[in-house]
Amino acid sequence: MHAEAAAKRAKLARTAPAGRSGVKVWPYLFALPFVVFYFTFHFYPVIYSFWLSLHDWNGIGAKTFIGLRNYVTLLTKDPLFYKSLYNTLIIMVMSVPAMLLLGMALAYLIFQLVKGRVFFQTVNFLPYITTPVAIGFIFSFMFDFQTGIVNNILLKLGLMSEGYHWLQDPTMAKVIIALMIVWRNLGYFMTIYLAGMTAIPQDIYEAARVDGSTGLHTFTRITLPLLQNITVFLIVTSIIGGLQLFDEPKLLYGGWTGGNSGGPDNAALTVIWKFVNDSFITGTRFGYGSAIAYTLFVVIVLFSIVSYRISSGKGEKA
């Protein structure tokens, strides 16, 4: 009996390491599909795009290695790139602060409601899930010279004697695109701020009321500081998304109103739109388009770091 038990223990001892090593393999097996798809469809295209930016290639013939010539041409001989970057930054400056302020104010008003909160949340969030194509058509018809509702209202109120070409004004082009961005994303900002306000412990507000704090004082001294992390998150993500602006200007001016020119005097041309034009529409310069994409990537990283340090309060400590 003792010999048989010793043999069983020896057998278990021999098989235990193999069993334990077999169990350790399963996490890697489950993670393997994601890793394979990530390297195949994300990491490899990113590396290949950078390698392509060092070549001259039209998508058909052989690739010609030219080093950093695409970047030199982009930064020194392509004024349209700086024009597109300027347009992108101006539109972002007009839209991001408006979304932050209006989103916080709207969230605070809805947070104070006792009845109808779900209804107002749904109504304000609907534009965010509306397709960009529909938004482009809506604003195109709103500001149309002949049939636009904006001109019709202003004419009936006697504020204008004749219709105005809103979509053909370079300055108004940026303003209208900023309005599109604010109208579409305001519900998202409201939802994020509303979630942050809901997460604040009510004990803090009760203690403030006991100390005699008013509504405005409570909002500025308690609510705003506790929402700082959410504000930093929204600022950084808004800058990243703003520098990649494409849908709104392209849908507003990519049809009959402006073709592929980027709107009046290229006032609506953004960096991504220029990247699409140079790579696929006005020319097939894939290497040059890759250089635009990587230059924009560097700009996004720099702006994200600066905005994070400033909005999080670390800019003064640096």
Draw up the topology in text.
Elements: H1 2-53, E1 55-56, E2 64-65, H2 69-76, H3 79-111, H4 117-125, H5 132-142, H6 149-156, H7 170-199, H8 202-210, H9 215-226, H10 228-243, H11 247-253, H12 271-281, H13 286-311
Helix pairs in contact: 1-13, 3-7, 3-10, 4-7, 5-11, 10-13, 12-13
Descriptive terms for the model:
318 residues, mainly alpha, MetI-like fold, 2 domains, two-stranded antiparallel ribbon, disordered C terminus
- Tell me the CATH architecture of the largest domain: Orthogonal Bundle
Helix content: over 70%
The helix-and-strand class reads: mainly alpha
Q: Give average pLDDT, whole number.
A: 84
Cα-to-Cα separation, first versus last residue: 76 Å
Rg from C-alpha positions? 28 Å
CATH superfamily of the largest domain: MetI-like
Which regions contain 5 or more consecutive residues with pLDDT less than 50? 18-22, 314-318
Number of domains: 2
Number of helices: 13
If strands are numbered along the chain, what order do they take across the biggest sheet? Answer: 1-2
Counted beta strands: 2
Task: State the order of secondary-structure elements, H for helix, E for strand.
Answer: HEEHHHHHHHHHHHH
Strand content: under 5%
**Most strands sheet:** 2 strands, antiparallel
Under the CATH scheme, which class of the largest domain? Mainly Alpha
CATH fold-level topology of the largest domain = MetI-like fold
Described by the principal axes of the CA atoms, the overall outline is: globular
Protein name: Carbohydrate ABC transporter permease
Family: Belongs to the binding-protein-dependent transport system permease family.
Keywords: Cell membrane, Membrane, Transmembrane, Transmembrane helix, Transport
Membrane topology: Multi-pass membrane protein
